[in-house]
Amino acid sequence: MLDADVFLTNSSTIHSLILKGQTVVAPLLRSDGMYSNFWAGMTAEYYYIRTDLYEPILYRENIGCHHVPMVHSAVLIDLRRYDSDRLTYKAEKLIAYNGPEDDIITFAVGANKSDVPLFVCNDEIYGFIMVPLENDETITEDMERLTNTKVEILAFNDYLPLSDELKEFVTYPEKDTLGLDHIYMINLIRRPERRTRMLRLFDELGIKAEIINAVDGRTLNDRSLKKWGVIPMPEYSDPYHERPMTMGEIGCFLSHYVVWKKMLEYGYKNVMVLEDDVRFEPFFRQKVNYVLAELSDLGIEWDLVYMGRKRLAKSESPVEGSKFLLEAAYSYWTVGYILSESGAKKLIGAMPLGKLIPVDEYLPILSNKHPKEEWAAKFPIRDLIILSTNPLLIYPTHYTGEDGHISDTEDSKIVQNIVTSIKSGDRYEL
Questions:
Q1: Are 313 and 332 in contact (CB under 8 A)?
Q2: Tell me: the pLDDT tens digits for 192-210?
Q3: Alpha helices in 39-159 (DSSP H)
Q4: Are residues 46 and 163 in contact, defined by beta-carbon separation less than 8 angstroms?
Q5: CA–CA gap between residue 277 and residue 290 (Å, rounded)
Q6: pTM of the model
Q7: DSSP H helices in 266-321
């Protein structure tokens, strides 16, 4: 039983569900929010109730097939099993039933009364489902929800299949730069699957972006670093792994540095910078508009606005008069941010290449929010004004330790035996 607003992206779904050996089993479907195709709780009056079981199943914290009181929209029923004869969508066939006249509720109640267990399985990523329209919503809002669903699918897949026969019926929004002067997307040439995925996302969201070929840490050596003028900060040690910088971290910094230089070269007043392993929040365009409107209407002074980050500080202050902005404290990640001309000038003007540290350490140092005073002392001017959207608009596609997580910064050669000597002509070894 499959509804029209279901997107099954796992081609093995039917085979996998049959192997579960159950009379009724459903594949867990994600949406652009908390909505899914199962209930973890039902009231005595047969209505939905949120329980503590719901989120661990939805977010795949508890992996497996879970016995639940309701499944709908994508349901496999094994008609070879005798107890399937006790299932029905017709309320009049239920004994002593006085609940709502609703097909999926009738099905669930009938199954529960007949001791036919209902299971939802989250052992694999099976597919997605659209959030239903409310009675007062329009087809335009439904199209926005469809876009949200496709964007969510592309957070987990490199592509979104479209048959040649249906291409003529699919339209995409006209592309623009979301009210900013320019948008950059940083991507390693050897990661074409990420580039393809991001280009599909830009099609769906109507984003006009320039691709920046990232500086690849695998290609860096002592000769190329001397050409860049890169000298890693000798005092730096990774806070978690207690190691020097990796070549990947140097390449990441230089990639962002190239963007900052380009912004000033072309005289842009504000730009958006995106990395290639991000997923966008639902209604991303609208939320960016809200943030930009606040920055303008409230006359807020700013240099950089995180759209995605790993927050490391416990307390942060909201921007006065703002609904969507915080004053950002110590944070990690550069997955997505908005940068002003003044911010780019400060980032370049601090001359970071001669005392290089990872870019997500550099930003909080320049905003005077870094806990390592000995590192911060290398940059006497620390007046970068960093804000953050609240809630965030961008997240990584995968986190460290998750299946599918790839890090071109962590999984990279470590810079060893750094020796600097001004007197001997700034010689150093790697």
A1: no
A2: 999 999 999 999 999 999 9
A3: 54-58, 103-113, 139-154
A4: no
A5: 24
A6: 0.88
A7: 284-297
- Residue pair 303/364 in contact (Cβ under 8 Å)? The answer is no
By C-alpha distance, which of 380, 334, 378, 376 is closest to 359? 334
Measure the CA angle with vertex 182, ends 176 and 185; round to 5°.
95
Angle formed at CA 403 by CA 400 and CA 407, multiple of 5 degrees: 45
Look up residue 322 and give its amino acid. Answer: S
Q: Is the dihedral of CA 339, 344, 347, 352 positive or negative?
A: positive
Element (H, E) at 334: strand 331-340
Taking each helix axis from N to C terminus, what angle separates 139-154 and 192-205, rounded to the nearest 10 degrees? Answer: 170
233-256 pLDDT per residue, tens: 999 999 888 899 999 999 999 999
| Arch. (CATH architecture) of 182-396 | Alpha-Beta Complex (3.90)
pLDDT confidence of residue 160: 80
Strand extents, DSSP E, 157-199: 182-187
- Dig out the tokens for 97 from the structure: 């039933």
Contact in structure between 119 and 61 (CB atoms under 8 Å):
no
Among 273, 282, 305, 307, smallest CA distance to 395 is for 307
pLDDT band at residue 29 using 50, 70 and 90 as cut-offs: very high
Q: How many helices (H) and strands (E) does the chain have?
A: 11, 19
The amino acid occupying position 7 is: F
Structure tokens that stand for 23 in this block: 């009379």
Buried b or exposed e, range 363-380, using 16+ CB within 10 angstroms: bbbbbebbebeebbeebe
Distance from the first to the final alpha carbon of the chain:
61
Helix (H, G, I), strand (E, B) or coil at 227: helix
Helix (H, G, I), strand (E, B) or coil at 77: strand
Instruction: State which amino acid sits at residue 338.
Output: I
Q: Taking a C-beta distance cutoff of 8 angstroms, is the pair 273, 256 a contact?
A: yes
Number of neighbours of residue 255 by Cβ within 10 angstroms: 23
* CA pair distance 370, 363, nearest whole angstrom: 9
Give CA–CA dist 31/49, Å, rounded.
18
Domain(s) labelled CATH 3.90.550 in the chain stretch across 182-396
